């Protein structure tokens, strides 16, 4: 039986009430079978497993482990402060989640929030491989069983990239899924951990659910814990305890099946095999390392040395798995060398973000989504009938707006948070969307998707080079320059000030709000005339819900913009994000460095916000 002290440290048995459930006896024969991608068949043959049994195992129908009864323990607990769920779930330092009942309280509150609707349902479970995930899986399984969930589908080794979970939910028709990740934030005992719930369309849980979760965290009094053994996550297969079932699955299958519905893998393989193409992908020792080799090497034929930092590590190798010019320095150095590859890309901790680089060329996330949208119908089979519409988050540059206007398709500007895109996609209003925070995606899933973006760019390259002779490659830079010639260039940059003392950050935002409240159209800020100044409010065109206070923005008459937001994706302190943008159709300026082109409006933003005065920071942590 499981040791309850593992789930609830320091909990005495006096706080536990037991009820008994009967369980049928199970077949143990296949308990130690390990299914690896390359050696599965050989291993099973050596172990004397018949071909029929191999087929059943591949189908996920063989069982392992056995017990005749298990108990559901009602374990006393009490509310814990600080469990408010944000747009990306609940994130805290790892040691906080590992403290007594912290994770268990939130999971129990989730099941209470879902109520009878979740009983008898099948959910997914997996994460980005970070520290504490393996222990967390076992805690969650025991609570799922104790709360009447019928089945949990878990990625092998507890792995499941965020977009892969969305694909799994959609392909299998699951009720929802739990994702263990703090996204692009560092991992380890002293770093970050996170948990979120995705609903039946594969989208992050809407506020009607997250608000209920928070409410229950404030009143919770007991945990419903099934006293079942820990599940072996290393082997694909099924474990049953009466009416409760755990299926450990190949975490690539449904995801790759989905990607194959979107892209022409034969065309991609042909392009990657060209002698003048060199490709490099940096997984940053995060979850996409588990997907990169089977996708890029096995399926598309890229050389094995194209994949860097491919082994997922619990601490991401001590790095910060955020694919930007600062934290993906190893890849940036390669791509800006004298003998740089044709195409470079990176993804983040949980596989939903991406960075795209050409030979000595960086594609901003805002330009990336715009270029993909402009070329999707021609280059990606999934979009052969055109786009339903496009969307971007409010802080993202207006490059996508220009594409939508030219194509005559609907355009939507939403708050930051993928759930807003999900509503549009579920209503068939949006095909492609993106955020400036290195998130790009489409309606094949309901999450941003790092590997999708990489394949989208490879598809554009493949199409543009369809008739190009060897040695005359159309490059990433060529594609982006052609885009600017048609649509103009939105010079854009984001300044991140990480770990700012929260009180100081809030004082700065209050100061900016005062300026907004008194601003009028035509007023000047450091020589820039205001067209609009507000704290962005969004009314969802699908369900009518209203999201307020989504960011202070100043939009000027020449199209330039200054935006300030406090980010909720970290686990401690505050991150101030300052966004600056200006637009030009003057081709003679396209090659300017963005920081030079934006110099005047950057100075206006810093002067207006009094950022250095409020925070004591004289430079940002990260510039993108």
Provide a descriptive summary of the structure in words:
With 624 residues, the chain is α+β, with helices and mostly antiparallel strands. It is 33% helix and 24% strand. It has a seven-stranded mixed β-sheet, with helices on both faces. A hairpin with a 6-residue loop joins strand 26 and strand 27. It starts with a helix and ends with a strand. The N terminus is likely disordered.
Strand content: 15-25%
Secondary-structure content class? alpha+beta
Output the number of helix runs. Answer: 21
**Low-pLDDT stretches:** 1-6, 8-50, 56-61
Task: State the distance separating the first and last CA atoms.
Answer: 51 Å
Count every beta strand, where a strand is a DSSP E run of 2 or more residues.
28
The mean pLDDT is 89
Helicity range of the residues? 25-40%
Biggest sheet features = 7 strands, mixed
Briefly summarize what is shown.
With 624 residues, this protein is α+β, with helices and mostly antiparallel strands. Helix content is 33%, strand content 24%. The termini are far apart.
